[in-house]
């Protein structure tokens, strides 16, 4: 029960952060936004219609898609995020009368960072705010396209289609804001502490494993593999380390076996002994 309550608290905080960023830094500069919120922005600028209410109304067909193609649980998460974000947009609307910054570039940067953190909290809590995210997920389901790519494409189409209404500079600042927001959102989802996972194929696995455990104080796992050509069985070293330890582990390994074979990959989020716990 506590975990569920905390999840909802985090979602609410994320919605308020994203909405406050929009009202403090984007709207006073007449910036746009990606997704259906971007269309709500345009309606606000042209007809002074409430952004939150319009965002919810525009999302009604999206809610049907969420229920029709993704089931009740996804539908519930979508309608929860859509309602909370729409309400947050109108609750924080008074903030656009008190912009803390007057420089457009700073507004784009700060607005992108704060909104990215807010959306990251929402998505990390397995929730979403409807809009093009659901459309992108549907396209992926039907045609196997990457969701992130589809979201970016759809966002760009919405912004580019509205450029004729506004100054071209607005579109540029909006893209900067969107890019930074996307980076921060991904960081919030994947975790800020990027690690590296390394597989080492060597003739001296025990010696290298001992060196890693002693010198780097990292646990090592032996995987068992077989060369397809030689048919020789051998131990393969698997270890997860920090970014700073990459050069050191390569140095240790090559000192022991100059012919060692490395595979180094990103480990986007690592929890457990020796790393962060959530």
TrEMBL record:
Membrane spanning stretches: 7-27, 39-67, 74-95, 101-123, 143-164, 170-189
Its chief place of residence is membrane
The answer on whether this UniProt entry bears the keyword Acyltransferase reads: no
Q: Which UniProt keywords apply?
A: Cell membrane, Membrane, Transmembrane, Transmembrane helix
Membrane topology qualifier? Multi-pass membrane protein
Cellular localisation? Cell membrane
The superkingdom listed in its UniProt entry is Bacteria
Q: Which InterPro entries does the protein's record reference?
A: DUF2179, N-reg_PII/ATP_PRibTrfase_C, UPF0750_membrane, YitT
Which intervals hold domain DUF2179?
218-272
State a GO cellular component annotated for this protein: plasma membrane
Q: What is this protein called?
A: YitT family protein
Q: Native species of this protein? A: Megamonas rupellensis
